[in-house]
Amino acid sequence: MKFFKIYLLSSFGLFSLISNAQSISSEMVDFQMLKAPKTLIEEANRQLKVTVTSPYNLKAEDVVAQTKLDFQEEQKNYAKVVADSEKEFQQKTKDHDVEVAKAKEKFELESAEFKKLSLLERLTMTEQGKNPKLVNPVKPTYIKPAAPVYREPNLSNYIIVDNNVLASQINIDGFSKDGSYLDVIVDIQKVTFQDNAGQTFANQPTKIVAKVNGVEKINAVYFKDFKFVSSSPTNNINKSLEEKNHLTKVMAFINQLLNDNFGLQTIKSSVKLSSVKNKGKYDDLEKASIYVATNLRKLNPQNPQMTAAGMTGMQKGIDIWKETLTKIDYKDKKADYNGRIAEFVYFNLIRLHLAIGKKADAEKYLNEMQENIVNLNLSYDEQNELKELESQIYKN
Description:
The strands form 3 sheets. A 4-stranded mixed beta sheet has the order 2-3-6-7. Strands 4-5-8 form a 3-stranded antiparallel beta sheet, with helices on one face. The longest helix is centred in the first third of the chain and has 56 residues, at 60-115. Helices cover 49% and strands 17% of the residues. Helix 6 (283-298) packs antiparallel against helix 7 and helix 7 (304-325) runs antiparallel to helix 8 (339-355). It contains 10 helices and 9 strands.
């Protein structure tokens, strides 16, 4: 009978622990956002003018035309190439006859000296392979040069661009090229290759000037320093191809620089959000996570109205999280709203505001969490995550 009572008490205690436990789970929520530029230009004035100066002025038809001219020149010179090869072969044949005579003379002299040796000495040298041998030089063989064959040039190895083409490759998200409110001038120099310790380095000074309504915002020269290109020296690389690759890097840099400063770039991101699943007492918290996750996915940089609606919807969830923090009892671990609940709410608020670019709000919740840190029981991984979040908040 006593055993039965103990069993009931034990079962009741276990049920109490389970009913008090919070089942917290996490998910990664993907979303899109507009990356704010360093200089925001009003929508009505987002017109771009680009002017490029460079040493490049090559068209595909120019490469093909030059290849055909080179082929015609090879055909024209083919008879001379054959004649020269025949003459060279005749000279090699004469030289061979002389070398054969020298080889025979050397063999005869060595044989005469060999015969003067004793039988034992001759046997010893023969066993060691040092006895005289007639080694005739290889007789030259004539190979007639192949006739020229025309091959279409590999255009991928050439820098087939001009200033207008380069200018057309420079674009800023959210801008049209219907005006000059944002005036960009780019001067690209030719690539200079340099040998250093058997390796190839290159530079390509590129000046970028950007003016917003006549006010200079960028004026700097990039790619002045020599950077590593190849582990081979300059005479072992395809310079045309390497210059083309370098120019591609320069153009990519120009576009990124201008978009970072003025563009309305769409960036894809994700944020980790946690939720408590216990039904009943935590329904509001589960609802908050749904509000935030669902509306976060609605953000659409191409649709300001939908983005505004998403932000409004997210705020409903944020308000529930903030209200929850006012209910926390840090001293009672068995309380419905204990330190464990505070942990995941604070982490959600910090992660979310940092993800959507609101560092000031993220810092506010970080400071609040740190004020209560002594009452929280953070795991090793959670401590490391908090340090990483703090680093991101204070990163320039």
